[in-house]
Write a structure and sequence with these properties.
The structure is a homodimer. Chain A is of the alpha/beta class. Chain A is built from eleven helices and 17 strands.
Chain lengths: 357, 357
């Protein structure tokens, strides 16, 4: 089994901790290791032959640096010259693996998700691998825990099988609240997690059929016989210039006939903003989530989310406030407004304050 | 004229910026110069012969360091071995000046008050000096702007004179709200500011009469003929060990017959806590007071007070929150609860976290 980690994200919602060159997956949102490092550690539980990390040119250096300590498995860091969504990144990784091992199973993971139960993660992926070996395109579906309107859903055809994997009835874009509530109640819907498993040959065949332009571009790449990918960059640059930006969901999964969903019951969060931290970190006795603090004293304060950058924290009389302090910036935000942190980043961009982006 | 600055305060309400060795008067609450430095600059407008700064041993070094740039006037820093309230500090300064110039006028200023109008300050002090030269103990009374229950009041006898100075009818301790409202409406009451002017001989004579023990202690001190006060410390230590802790208001002003109040119309604040900053600093266009920031972006946010320690600040969707970030600590506080910052400090003290006190 090979593991592909998609690490090219550049979200702004963890500003000021996240920056263009240090996006969410490369920062220590929880204190300690970065999300990328945690993802790699988790993937190592699957004992992959090799890990391919697809990132972008801006983040390649820091990505490589963060993975330096890993010796159990070879790691390749592939920098994309342009963001082209997930299909080209997955296609590129598949083509690289196919050069050596076309019948291998390839698993795909976003670098910036949180998963609480590593053992259940491993078991779920073994199930997915089984289905992948049988020629299916397998997607992991997260058991929904709330009527979330910010995610895509996967409807499973649960008429035949007990525990899954299930055939996929359909993919559904982010639904309105009423629909999301129905999905939650029906028990047949899963959140689309962006985690996949398939044989390299299966996904490349599907691309041949459904994304022929991308497949052609991949065909033209000349990979070295050994795993020495450093010289590939000019070829990748050429190919990406002519590659459309498309998600693997839209490009392949929603159209392919042989798609299965494996229900994932491990604790999961995409940690979409600062306000998601309490999904992932247990609040302290006072009901506050305080990360990377030298200590804390709370007086009549709860529901707050504080990223303290090693400082001692005092909180008095406030509720549901997010405060993030870093070396050069300070964010103060209502907990319900964490999505709007990107408005601050947009304004900084407008003012040309590159140092803070 | 000689100026005496009382700089021994050790408040906790500006934590985490203020610490035991860097109390309010030594920190840059407004960004830029410290309150002590601003006080000295203001006092220089009065062209004093000499400035005597009374502080304590813990703060003497930093106090001296902060005053190093002043060359217009000689400055003496006198460290008290113990806090004994204002009467002994004022008595000590008076005795020192009396050694050289017993008929000089001596003005007294707290080091940690804010005054907006320097010219009006100068004019007011000239009026006070006039009354002092006529043998009065002069106190400056601030025109009240709200029914403050946290200050002492001075009732003036305004029956005879137009603009003041007025004889003092009585001193009143912190009043309940209803009384404070009456004071505000009557127009005869002033806030007790802790700023004074008198001849050195007048205050020492008053002490002879009203605080004879203190006066005896001062009599025993042997001052050098020149202004070289460095060797005084052992004598001061000995005297303070036997000196009662008493305020000049309680010890002298409330009992002396020759007390006058000069109305002070210059903008004044004792900057008692973080929530007082908007009295002193104009809020920005968004209605937030942001100090020492590299820049700021506010989205649907107002009434906040942010001390940014040089950082860029983003504020989203919050109201009336105080956030203070320093090198090693972070405070998040409701604006109505700024008085309770001391509870954080008390808890840190209880835990023995000396580094943060």
């Amino acid at each position: 089994m090979y593991a592909v980690i998609l690490a090219g994200g550049s979200g702004t919602r963890f500003w000021p901790l996240s920056r263009k060159v240090r996006p969410k997956q490369l920062i220590s949102v929880f204190g300690g290791k970065s999300m990328l490092q945690r993802t790699v550690e988790r993937v190592l539980l699957l004992a992959p032959k090799r890990i391919i990390v697809v990132t972008n040119e801006l983040q390649a250096k820091e990505t490589t640096a963060q993975l330096e300590g890993i010796i159990a498995v070879p790691v390749d860091v592939i920098p994309e010259p342009l963001g082209r969504n997930t299909a080209p990144a997955i296609g590129l990784a598949a083509a690289i693996i196919a050069r050596h091992d076309p019948e291998a199973v390839m698993t795909v993971f976003p670098a910036d998700h949180f998963i609480s139960d590593g053992e259940l993660f491993r078991e779920t992926l073994l199930t997915a691998r089984e289905a992948a070996l049988n020629g299916y395109l397998v997607t992991l579906g997260i058991l929904p825990t709330r009527p979330e309107t910010g995610y895509g859903y996967i409807e499973a055809d649960r008429s035949l099988r007990g525990e899954g994997p299930y055939p996929v009835a359909r993919f559904v874009e982010k639904p309105p609240m009423e629909t999301a509530l129905q999905f939650l109640e029906s028990g047949n819907f899963y959140w689309n997690s962006g985690m996949f498993a398939w044989k390299v040959s299966t996904i490349l065949d599907a691309m041949e059929e459904l994304m022929p332009d991308l497949r052609q571009g991949l065909h033209r790449l000349e990979f070295p016989r050994i795993w020495d990918l450093a010289d590939l960059n000019p070829q990748i640059r050429e190919m990406y210039a002519e590659t459309a930006s498309l998600s693997i969901d839209y490009g392949v999964m929603e159209k392919a006939p042989n798609v299965m969903v494996v229900p994932a019951r491990f604790g999961w969060s995409d940690v979409g903003s600062w306000s998601a931290l309490p999904e992932v970190l247990e609040p302290d006795d006072g009901g506050n989530v305080i990360v990377d603090a030298a200590g804390s004293v709370a007086v009549d304060a709860d529901g707050n989310i504080i990223y303290a950058d090693g400082k001692l924290v005092g909180i008095v009389g406030v509720r549901d406030v997010i405060v993030v302090t870093t070396g050069d910036a300070l964010l103060v935000c209502d907990r319900e407004r964490a999505q709007d942190v990107k408005k601050v980043v947009e304004e900084l961009e407008r003012r040309g304050l590159q140092d803070y982006l």
